[in-house]
Structures are given as C-alpha cells and as structure tokens.
Amino acid sequence: MGGPDGLSGAVRRDWGEAGILAAVLKAAQYLAALRAGQDVWAEVGASLLGFFSADLVAVGRRVDGAALDVRCWEAAGVGASAVRPCALDAGGRAAMDEVLESGFLVTRALGPSRSLAAAFLPVSGDHRAEAVLMVAHAAGMPRELLDVYLAVAGLAGTTMARLAAEQELRDRRLELEQLVRDRTAQLERANGRLQLEIAERRLAEDMAREMAYHDSLTGLPNRRLFADRLEVAIARARRDGHRIAVAVLDLDRFKSVNDGRGHSLGDALLQAVAGRLVGGLREQDTVARIGGDEFVAVLADLADPAHAAALAEKLIALVRDPFMLDGGPVHMTASVGVAVYPEHGAGEDVLLRHADEAMYRAKEQGRDAYRLWAAPDASAPEGVH
C-alpha cells in the first residue's frame, strides 16, 4: 500500500486555520485522484494518517446492524509517512458498536493521552452498506480538527461513490463488449451454417441440373440437352447460310456383349465409346447419348454435304478400333445414319428422324457402315461405306 507523501512536521502539528486548510486540500486532491481498482479503504486510511496528526484510522462496513470487514491502519513510526495494518482493541470495538447502535458521532476517551472519534461514512445509497470511520488522536484534539476529519470522511464517501459508479460503468461496458462478441460469434456461426446450406443447395441444384440434361453413365448430353443444342445449331446455320449434319450411331450387336460378358463391361464399353467420340470430333460438334447403345452427333459448319460422309466414316473408324477392357480387347462396330440440313429437313425432329431411318438402313444392309438419308423415291443412290 503506497500512501501519500507526509507533510512536514511543522505543518502536521500546526492546526491553525492555514494548516487545516492545507491538510484538507491535500487530502481532497489525493482522494479525487483515486481510480477504480485501487485498495480504496487502504488509501483513505493512508490519506488521513499522512495528512493529519491522527495515529490510527479504522473503517468497517455495516451490514444489517453488524460491523463487518473491519480494517485498521496506524502510522509506521513517529513522523513517518508510511502506514501499516493494525488491529482494533476493545475500546475501538466498543466505539464502533456504539456508533452503529446510535447512528451519531461518538467521541470516546481512550486514556489520559488519547481520544477517538467515530462517525458514519456513507458509501452508497444502500444504507445497509455504510462504513464507520474511526480516528484516534492524541489528547487535546481541537474541535476544528474533528470537523476536518468528518469533512474528509464525507469526501471519502463521495470518492467511494464515484469509484463505484466508474467500476459499474466499466463492468457494464465489459458486459456489453462481451455481449457484442457473443452475438458476433453467433452471427458468424449462423452465417457459416447459411453459407453451408447455400453451397449444399447449389450442389443439389447442380446435380439435379446435371441429371436433367446429362446422361448419368457417360456424362454426355441427354436427349433433352441434345434437342436444345440441335435447335441452336439449326438457327445458326440458317442465319449464316451453312449446313449441319445429324448423325445417329448405334453399336452393332451390343446386346450380345452386354449379355455375354456382363453389364459392368457393357457400361464400361459405353463410357469408352463416348470418350472416343468426344475426343475424335471437333470442338464445335456435339455428341449425346439418347438411349441404350445409341449416340447422336451434330456436325456443324459443313461447307459441302459430301463432308458429312467423311465425318460418318470417322465415327465408324473410332468405334472399329478395339477397346481394351477387362484385361483384353473388345471388338465393336457401329452403324451410322446421316441427315443434312437443309437438304434432308429444316426442323430438329425431321432431321433426327431421317438420320435414324438412314441408320436402320445401314444395319439392314450389313452393319459397320453409314447411310445418307434419301427419300424413298429418290433416284440418287445413298452413300455407303
């Protein structure tokens, strides 16, 4: 406990008007500078011992008429500014009990050379928690000095109220800051959960979209997405004056492979065929699986209808090369039918139907070949590979 600097001996013992005023001002300045968190009662005791000629200061808290938390300090030596803890004797306890009982200022002679003054020290508006201030002084203590003690007691009470308010404000601010931190953490967790839910929903939507427009086995566009791509390709060809070809490819005797070597190998074969078709065609072309072992392609930007035959031959060659599956080669052929826009039709359904008809003619005429669609009564021969 660091007490205030003591006054000089002359000032401490000159209890005239100037000495009293100097002591009160110093005590007031010292108490006004106290901050929450300090041992305030010890500082009050040190100020009274340091600035006045008292030799003992005691404080206690009154709760329901009983004295609690009684603390006592005394000067560490004659003329010294340091203070040390002490204990109240029987006379001091009796004086404290008396002031608690009566509620008035009590002055009690402790012997031929000492007397003691005790008074209430209001700490807060809660009258169950007031302090008792006791000051022991050498005999002959003037009335004016006793009034000074009581004034300092009032000042100490005001200081305690101020410190209590500052501490309460600090506590409320800390509670508010903690509340803000807790609420911020809750919002961050809620935002994290919301972002996770959004990501999961987007993933579910992407999966639903993928399932709606793509073949689940090969990942190729399905019939629905192929129809959209074909519609766009026809619109672009009509605008630019280009030709496009629709090629329908069906694997020859795929059922015998699927039944004889198992559905797992059949699925692997379909995936391998899809990979070859995508890798073997141009970037602007579209390949789709429209069911079973049937694939369809849109061959864009044809400068000449004859180019459709070359692309059909390429499709057949891609399938004819053996597939290495299940530890060995799997040989497969395909039949392809081709319809060209605008010669063989101007709409999506017409082009796809004509290409399908041409593919069945290729199968009927020996498989492992392609056919260009031609009207049944056309005199021009169909292309054949």
Keyword list:
385 residues; alpha+beta; Beta-Lactamase; Alpha-Beta Plaits; 2 domains; five-stranded mixed sheet; 10 helices; 13 strands; 22% strand; disordered C terminus
Description:
With 385 residues, the protein is of the alpha+beta class. The chain has two domains: 9-170, GAF domain (Beta-Lactamase, 2-Layer Sandwich), CATH 3.30.450; 223-372, Reverse transcriptase/Diguanylate cyclase domain (Alpha-Beta Plaits, 2-Layer Sandwich), CATH 3.30.70.270. It is built from ten helices and 13 strands. It has a six-stranded antiparallel sheet, sandwiched between helices. Strand 12 (334-341), helix 10 and strand 13 form a beta-alpha-beta unit. The longest helix has 71 residues, at 143-213. The radius of gyration is 52 Å and the shape is rod-shaped. Residues 5-13, 123-129 and 378-385 have low confidence and may be disordered.
> What is the strand tally?
13
Largest sheet: 6 strands, antiparallel
**Mean residue pLDDT:** 77
Q: What is the H/E string?
A: HHHEEEHEEEHHEHHEEHEEEHE
Number of helices: 10
SSE blueprint:
Elements: H1 9-13, H2 17-32, H3 40-51, E1 56-63, E2 66-75, E3 83-86, H4 90-102, E4 106-109, E5 114-121, E6 130-138, H5 143-213, H6 223-240, E7 243-251, H7 254-261, H8 263-280, E8 286-291, E9 294-302, H9 306-320, E10 323-325, E11 328-330, E12 334-341, H10 348-364, E13 370-372
Parallel strand pairs: 12-13
Antiparallel strand pairs: 1-2, 1-6, 2-3, 4-5, 5-6, 7-9, 7-12, 8-9, 10-11
Helix pairs in contact: 2-3, 2-5, 7-8, 8-9
Report a brief summary of the structure:
The chain is built from 10 helices and 13 strands. The chain is an alpha+beta fold and 385 residues long.
